[in-house]
Amino acid sequence: MSKAISDDEAWQAFERRDRAYDGRVIAGVTSTGIYCKPSCPARHPRRDNVRFFPDAETARAAGFRACLRCRPDEIGRERIAVARAVALLETAEDAMPMAQLAAQVGYAPHHFARLFKRATGVTPAAFARGLRARRMAEMLNEEANVTDAIYEAGYSAPSRFYETARDRLGMTPSAWRNGGAGVTIRWTVAETSLGPLLIAATDKGLCRVAFDEGAFDLAARFPKAEVVAGGAALADLAARVVGEVEQPGRHTDLPLDVRGTAFQEAVWQALRAIPPGETRSYAQLAVAAGNPRAVRAAGTACGANNVAVIIPCHRAQRSDGTMGGYAYGIDRKVALRKREGVAD
Question: In terms of CB atoms within 10 Å, which of 176, 205, 285, 317 comes out highest?
């Protein structure tokens, strides 16, 4: 048993099927003679029938055989494959299709996509976008000419960069140098019934809540910030955010650290004032924000929202009663509204 992990800690990891401990500890079940990784989905044995080992090789030497369900001997192979994929993405000059990436590391595309996301928190495509955005950040800091920086970052043309700049960078190139300098951002990816949710916060409050994003997306948005794993410091806040996804209206006072134009911030305040179970049209939001003519801008402000669910842009809709768009997919918007009792 590794000195870094006590038997009690190892058992707790097995009880909660914690994938973070896969590869760090192995459990040998004396009643069956098999050994498993912590995330094994099989029914847990009695505690007194379990011995812990630092690795599979040690468990085999003690007379145990590999579990056919969780396949603990494949942990090393999976990690090597993910590491190879990361290296390929980092050196690729052009976007690499999923099928090509998976083939080069010896896996089927759908299976490897799951492995990669489990290991890194993001899909290979999102990882590649994050790399390119990070290169763009570096180039914008080094290059005096924005166009030169765009080409150096790997974009095929300036138009390709500007099509995605607001989504990928979170700000215009001229504002890039203000990207979180001197700020520490803590992050985690929490599982919810609507999919994985990135939760990130500064000392002041939540700065990013988004489905299907991870640390690389966060670093792309805040290139000069110190981005660190949340740990215990973020646990309570993250739990409250997840609670708001699962049971809306329980935590309406969550602290925020978001910035936008004066009009955007007025729209976000109007959104937070909408009670769960109610909706507002973009026209009504424009009025609440002090500019009745800015209906389209109110919709754009909803799209620029950095903290999904907590600033509830899913409660916004068109004047004709139809839902309008949603950054994280219409299905999620429908699900969130149904949880609040809104019938679309």
Answer: 285
